[in-house]
Structures are given as structure tokens and as C-alpha cells.
Design a protein that fits this description.
Length: 300
């Protein structure tokens, strides 16, 4: 991370903590909800299957930038399906950088060639070993690993949603991240129980066991892009929600924190690690602040 970017983020954090500001710093643009997969734990794919036009996405990027967002995510659906004429996802990432966003990340299921060195991080969904990943996402594991081997930059971060199917494969994914070329780290979430996927959610005891495994993997030297100091809050769902410093925009509609905010009762069952980490950070939790500084400087 550039020193100038670090100083901007540090200034934002200090102002937010001291003056209890609720301005956003992290924003997500949903470029499409169209997806080539139908994963068992996903509730937001192919609802409209619309690929949003370039001019609309460009306008949404400008909206977020004017709001003060400086960390930008492009998300789907499947982001690599996005195209508008000659414009591709690479054009969006480049233009976001030119617009002034300091960190630009892309979320993908990894089933398309990974040729996007312009992105700071490519968050790639890997949901276990071959057997459990394929049980969740279809027969895609080998194709994803082939795409990772052929990637053109070392900017991949595994992105695993832990649920009832793959909860015993956390250590495997951590070690795979450590031992696979082009992979920088792994980031975890707990399954957030949308009404149609409630049976996949973990109990408090299962969350505690998963966090213990992640801690063990950290001690083993695996590159994990999460904060151990936030684990107790994630286990008990005791972190404040929603995260006012995060916003999502989809088809012109702006939502605080995420699209799930409109589902009654779901906010209180949030499984997103970054929500816990950011809300605790901006409440001035000293352990989280210190650990985030170390983690972000190491992996971004």
C-alpha cells in the first residue's frame, strides 16, 4: 500500500472514531447478478440476470467517489461475465483507479481466466477441498485451480463462506492458500442465513470451532486476511450492525452495508467478517485497529 493511501485511510479512521462520523469508505458496485453457477448457499444470483450498461456503472462509481468511498469492489453475480460492447471488466478497474479509488478489488467465482493484474485483490471463491467445493458450486474445483495456475498476477485471495457443508475444510483451504502460487491469502465469512438457505448456518459452537481452526492455521503460518481480535464478536454475533462505513450500489439503488439489510432479522445474524472488523475498528477497538494495520499492510 502506498504511503499516501495509508495516510488517507488513517485520517478517515481517526475522524470517524473521534467524531463518530458515519461516512462510507468502502463501496461495492454490483455489475450484474447474472452468474454461470447456481451455488447452494447463494440467494442473489440470476434474479434479473441483467448485465448493467457501462454508462450506468460509470455513474455509480462517480456517485460512490463523491460520497468519499476510496475502497471499491466490483461484484456480481459473476463479474467476469460483464461486458458492454468493447468495454470489459479490465476497463472498469482501470477507470476506477484513474478516478481516484485507492484500492480496487474484484470478486469472482474463478471459473473464467484470471488475467487482471490491475486489480489490487481478486477475491476468488474457494469453498473447501474438491469434494465439498464441488458439492456447493458444481464440478468447478479443477477448472478454478487451473485458472489460478495460469493467472497473470499474484493478487488472488481465496474467499470462503463457511457453512454446514464445508466447515471441516477450513484448514485445507488455509494450507492451499499458503502452498498455491499466485494466491496471496484467504479471507473467511460465516454463512449469512437468507430465508432460503437457513439450514446451512452454523451454530455458536460450530463458529467457535471454526475460529479455533483459523487461529491454529495462523499459528502454522498460513496467510489469513482476517482479524483474530474480531472472532469473539463473530462467534456471538455481538458486533454492531449495519456497518455505516460500507455501501452497496446496484442498478442505481444505494444500500447501507449490503443488499441483505432489507431482509428482516438478517442483520442480527450477519456472518461477514469484514462487517465485524470494520464496525469494531470504527468504534475504536484498540486490538482490532492494531491487528488491521498489520494485516492490511501485509496483504494489500
Amino acid at each position: 500500500m502506498k504511503l499516501s493511501s495509508f495516510l488517507q485511510f488513517a485520517g478517515f479512521g481517526i475522524r470517524t472514531i473521534l467524531f463518530h462520523e458515519e461516512k462510507p469508505i468502502l463501496g461495492t458496485v454490483i455489475v450484474t447478478d447474472k452468474c454461470n453457477l447456481k451455488c447452494k448457499h447463494c440467494s442473489v444470483n440470476n434474479i434479473t440476470a441483467i448485465v448493467h450498461p457501462y454508462e450506468k456503472i460509470r455513474g455509480e462509481m462517480e456517485t460512490l467517489y463523491r460520497m468519499g468511498v476510496r475502497i471499491l469492489f466490483f461484484c456480481g453475480g459473476e463479474t467476469f461475465l460483464w461486458r458492454d460492447g468493447e468495454k470489459t471488466l479490465r476497463d472498469l478497474v482501470r477507470e476506477a483507479k484513474e478516478m481516484g479509488f485507492l484500492i480496487v478489488n474484484v470478486v469472482t467465482n474463478g471459473t473464467f481466466p484470471i488475467d487482471l493484474p490491475e486489480a489490487d485483490l481478486i477475491l476468488l471463491s474457494l469453498d473447501g477441498d474438491r469434494e465439498r467445493h464441488n458439492q456447493i458450486r458444481g464440478d468447478t474445483y479443477d477448472k478454478i485451480m487451473e485458472n489460478i495456475r495460469n493467472a497473470t498476477a499474484d493478487n488472488i485471495c481465496f474467499y470462503m463462506a463457511v457453512n454446514q457443508i464445508n466447515k471441516d475444510a477450513v484448514a485445507h483451504v488455509c494450507r492451499t492458500a499458503r502452498d498455491t502460487e499466485h494466491v496471496r491469502a484467504v479471507s473467511f465469512n460465516f454463512h449469512t442465513p437468507y430465508p432460503d438457505t437457513k439450514d446451512l448456518a452454523l451454530s455458536r459452537e460450530e463458529k467457535a470451532a471454526v475460529c479455533k481452526t483459523i487461529e491454529d492455521m495462523m499459528a502454522e503460518g498460513c496467510p489469513i486476511f482476517n482479524l483474530k481480535s474480531a472472532f469473539p464478536y463473530l462467534i456471538d454475533n455481538s458486533f454492531p450492525t449495519p456497518c455505516r462505513q460500507c455501501v452497496v450500489i446496484e442498478d442505481g439503488k444505494l444500500s447501507t452495508c449490503g443488499r441483505c439489510i432489507e431482509v428482516p432479522g438478517l442483520c442480527e445474524k450477519c456472518g461477514y467478517f469484514f462487517v465485524a472488523e470494520y464496525t469494531l475498528l470504527f468504534r475504536g477497538n484498540v486490538k482490532v485497529i492494531w491487528e488491521m494495520l498489520h494485516t492490511y499492510l501485509k496483504y494489500i
